[in-house]
């Protein structure tokens, strides 16, 4: 057994070796009782008996010192402020542990430790202005409502989703299809830094790993695996977003799709997903209703902490929803702008509060975009 390696270093080595995909890696660890050092010290016959481990991969494991230097990797991590999380670490996303081929480890830059429910927003790099606007609005509404918005830092929909979450002062995480030190696309350097400052950048790949035909599907399974729901905003019939949607089905995640024009290629994937059973999405309220994060069950908005039970009104509403609902007691109709002026809440906060109130039956949306109360019978 390579006694000069710590367990974490052994995980780093196995994670970086060529020819070992996630399924083979997990089979290998199962064959050696979950001990990465025992796997690295295994003889060739026993290595090849592990399901999915091909002869060339077994040879790479036996000769790992010629492929990877864990001490050099640790030095790069320390210099870059990056941590390597194994499945035993508390910062490793809980839901990701439950999929059939979870990463043996994740590189993470940033302070966020995935303590809140996550929703993935994904879509095409060739997004329309409509798609970008929808993604940004959803990102802001979900982040403002306490969710962590997860996406892939790519151009188009991914960028808009991250920007929306950051605009609401909420949580967002980016999952990369490259090593954590490679920023792609390069114009998202500033966005990368802002996410790393308060959220999290994740990758299962070692430093210096470029993108290839395998890395983006591997990234898609993590995007789905981390989250309780996946939202596809715009997508062609093929591409990374559709791969993430397929993984959502395999992982048992809620799947939403934003409808688009029938003659728009970037909406063809979403329209097909809806036809095949995905939930049609028009706003964050659809997600809140489907996930049943109502009353005390929904996550607390950022910066406010968890609301104590006594902070909720008799209908199970939080302070923001109570404040907005009060504006409807006289039975008048109100637009989001008017409500923002009366309550002092942000636009994103108003949208989330209205979505919750509409889902619970306190208000209804009119054709002109204004809202009106449904006769709550409450008086102050």
Task: Describe the protein.
- By secondary structure, this protein is α/β, with parallel strands linked by helices.
- It folds into three domains: 7-78, no CATH class; 95-291, Rossmann fold, CATH 3.40.50.450; 307-373, Winged helix-like DNA-binding domain superfamily/Winged helix DNA-binding domain (Arc Repressor Mutant, subunit A, Orthogonal Bundle).
- The protein has 16 helices and twelve strands.
- The strands form two sheets. It has a nine-stranded mixed beta sheet with strand order 1-2-6-5-4-3-7-8-9, sandwiched between helices.
- α10 (215-226) crosses α11 and α13 (284-291) packs across α16 (347-359).
- The protein starts with 6 loop residues before the first helix and ends in a 7-residue tail after the last strand.
- Residues 293-298, 303-315 and 376-380 have low confidence and may be disordered.
């Amino acid at each position: 057994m390579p006694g000069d390696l710590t367990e974490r270093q052994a995980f780093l080595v196995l994670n970086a070796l060529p020819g070992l995909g996630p399924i083979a890696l997990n089979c290998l660890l199962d064959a050696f009782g979950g001990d990465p050092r025992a796997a690295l010290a295994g003889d060739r016959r026993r290595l090849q008996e592990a399901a999915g481990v091909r002869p060339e991969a077994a040879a790479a494991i036996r000769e790992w010192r010629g492929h990877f230097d864990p001490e050099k990797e640790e030095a790069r991590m320390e210099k870059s402020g990056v941590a390597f999380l194994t499945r035993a670490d508390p910062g490793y996303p809980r839901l990701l542990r439950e999929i059939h081929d979870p990463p043996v480890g994740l590189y993470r830059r940033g302070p966020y430790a995935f303590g809140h429910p996550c929703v993935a927003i994904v879509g095409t790099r060739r997004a329309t202005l409509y798609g970008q606007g929808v993604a940004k609005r959803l990102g802001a509404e979900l982040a403002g409502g306490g969710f962590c918005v997860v996406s892939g830092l790519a151009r188009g929909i991914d960028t808009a989703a991250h920007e929306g979450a950051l605009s609401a002062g909420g949580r967002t995480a980016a999952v990369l299809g490259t090593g954590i030190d490679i920023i792609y696309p390069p114009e998202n350097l500033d966005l990368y830094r802002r996410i790393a400052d308060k959220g999290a950048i994740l990758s299962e790949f070692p430093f210096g790993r470029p993108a290839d035909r395998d890395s983006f599907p591997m990234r898609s399974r993590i995007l789905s695996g981390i989250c309780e729901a996946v939202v596809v905003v715009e997508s062609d019939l093929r591409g990374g977003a559709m791969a993430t949607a397929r993984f959502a089905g395999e992982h048992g995640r809620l799947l939403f799709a934003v409808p688009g024009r029938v003659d728009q290629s970037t909406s063809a994937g979403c329209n097909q997903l809806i036809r095949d059973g995905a939930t049609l999405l028009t706003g964050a309220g659809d997600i809140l209703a489907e996930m049943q994060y109502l009353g005390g069950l929904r996550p607390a908005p950022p910066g406010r902490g968890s609301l104590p039970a006594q902070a909720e009104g008799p209908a199970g509403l939080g302070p923001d929803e109570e404040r907005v609902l009060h504006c409807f007691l006289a039975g008048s109709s109100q637009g989001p702008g008017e409500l923002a002026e009366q309550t002092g809440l942000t636009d994103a906060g108003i949208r989330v509060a209205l979505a919750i109130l509409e889902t619970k039956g306190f208000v209804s949306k009119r054709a002109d975009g204004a809202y009106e109360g449904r006769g709550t019978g409450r008086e102050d």
